[in-house]
């Protein structure tokens, strides 16, 4: 055992037992990066080092870590009601939370279906969309349209509508889905905030509908701002155009807001930030500030009403769908505390006040070696890193490891470095994390 391994106290057998998700297991287990505690904007690793959390966990912990407002609500709830079913019975916080969530939603989205994660939210939204058309007597509307570079979680529906090939290649046939092109065009390189050009790319949806026919298409699903592919803000006018085309052809529009809902865009949702209202919205992550797994799908009332009207006898369920952990009481307590905290501490306003500084600094990295694009919106930002010959993901990995050594956690994914700062970040912490990224890039050979 070298010194680093002895500090975390884990045996090789223990390390080997955990098949880690989305991780290079072989490299990790040779040189583990073990996080043991968190407070505010920082983690502490097994060596006792303070590490700035440059991705708010996994875009989850915008309010900062270990907020007493949330941890106390969770511990109180777990003592009072540790679990109760949401099938055929209910507990008060589920209803309180559903109503609270509607305060964050754009006009008309007011019916909330609880899930356990972002991936489950996506599957739920896709199933609601297909079932909705059946209830409407249009059972042929089953196909989905996603987008290149889209990320919609890891289950078979989300995988199929997703457009990141590395996530799809291994898994074979999914569900019936086709894809629009992404919006990363040459003219938009180094755009500050929303790119000006590219609304016309939405017209590709018209071409797909012309081939496949609206009578076969249930829904279009996009992230209003694509996160996992490396922060791709929508070009101005693009989402509005998608909305118009969906309306024209009687196709549902789903916004996957697992990253963008509840503050990260400097608005309550991406829909609010970009001024376009979907028919269904998927959420998770920031809903509980990452403390307890939970997701939610929010539907337009007309969708809910359709299920109720076509539900048969009143004692019968209108939708045969739900999870054991839908509206888990502990998750509900965490989410209520989180949403109250976002409002009471004016954290969304805070995102707005600090994001211009973040924007200025992240774009100051233009001109650094290998940096071939920079994108940002709200408190999200990413750099595209030119590939090392034959190894497109190598340099981002090396940059992220150098940042970790300097005391900064940033995400590397594909050919990008991604940042999603806590809403509670101080201006000097923005300076520090951008300096660390810049220095790490400069240190590459
Ligand atoms: N959808 C989007 C837009 C996401 O960013 C993610 C996760 O990053 C998911 C879905 C999947 O969420 P989860 O990992 O909670 O299943």
Automatic annotation (TrEMBL):
Keywords: Aminotransferase, Pyridoxal phosphate, Transferase. It comes from the Bacteria. GO terms for molecular function: transaminase activity. Its cofactor is pyridoxal 5'-phosphate. The keyword Cell cycle does not apply. The keyword Transferase applies. CDD domains: OAT_like. PROSITE patterns: AA_TRANSFER_CLASS_3 (PS00600). Belongs to the class-III pyridoxal-phosphate-dependent aminotransferase family. This is Aspartate aminotransferase family protein. It comes from Marinomonas phaeophyticola.
């Amino acid at each position: 055992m070298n010194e680093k391994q002895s500090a975390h106290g884990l045996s090789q057998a223990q390390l080997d037992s955990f098949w880690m998700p989305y991780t290079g297991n072989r490299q990790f287990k040779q040189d583990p990066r073990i996080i043991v505690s968190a407070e505010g904007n920082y983690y502490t690793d097994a060596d006792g080092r303070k590490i700035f959390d440059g991705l708010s966990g996994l875009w989850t912990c915008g309010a900062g870590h270990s907020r007493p407002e949330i941890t106390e609500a969770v511990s109180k709830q777990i003592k009072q009601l540790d679990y109760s079913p949401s099938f055929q019975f209910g507990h008060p916080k589920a209803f309180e939370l559903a109503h609270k969530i509607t305060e964050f939603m754009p006009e008309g989205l007011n019916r909330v279906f609880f899930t356990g994660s972002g991936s489950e939210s996506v599957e739920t939204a896709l199933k609601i969309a297909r079932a909705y058309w059946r209830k409407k007597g249009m059972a042929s509307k089953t196909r989905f349209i996603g987008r290149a570079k889209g990320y919609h979680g890891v289950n078979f529906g989300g995988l199929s509508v997703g457009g990141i090939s590395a996530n799809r290649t291994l898994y074979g046939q999914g569900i019936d889905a086709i894809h629009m092109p992404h919006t990363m065009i040459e003219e938009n390189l180094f755009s500050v905030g929303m790119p000006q050009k590219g609304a016309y790319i939405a017209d590709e949806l018209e071409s797909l509908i012309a081939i496949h026919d609206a009578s076969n298409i249930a829904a279009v699903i996009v992230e209003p701002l694509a996160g996992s592919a490396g922060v791709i803000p929508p070009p101005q006018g693009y989402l509005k155009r998608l909305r118009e085309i969906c309306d024209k052809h009687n196709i549902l529009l789903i916004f996957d807001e697992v990253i963008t809902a509840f503050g990260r865009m400097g608005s309550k949702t991406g829909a609010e930030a970009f001024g376009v209202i979907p028919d269904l919205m998927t959420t998770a992550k920031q809903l509980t500030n990452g403390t307890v797994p939970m997701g939610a799908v929010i539907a337009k009332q007309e969708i809910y009403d359709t299920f109720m009207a076509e539900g048969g006898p009143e004692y019968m369920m209108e939708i045969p769908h739900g999870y054991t952990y839908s509206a888990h009481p502990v998750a509900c307590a965490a989410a209520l505390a989180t949403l109250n905290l976002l409002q009471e501490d004016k954290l969304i306003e805070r995102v707005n006040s600090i994001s211009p500084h973040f924007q200025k600094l992240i774009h100051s990295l233009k001109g650094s070696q290998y940096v071939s694009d920079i994108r940002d919106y709200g408190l999200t930002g990413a750099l595209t890193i030119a590939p090392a010959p034959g190894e497109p993901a190598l340099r981002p990995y090396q940059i992220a490891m150098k940042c970790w050594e300097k005391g900064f956690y940033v995400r590397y994914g594909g050919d990008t470095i991604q940042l999603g700062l806590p809403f509670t970040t101080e201006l000097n912490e923005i300076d520090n994390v951008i300096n660390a990224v810049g220095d790490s890039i400069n240190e590459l050979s």
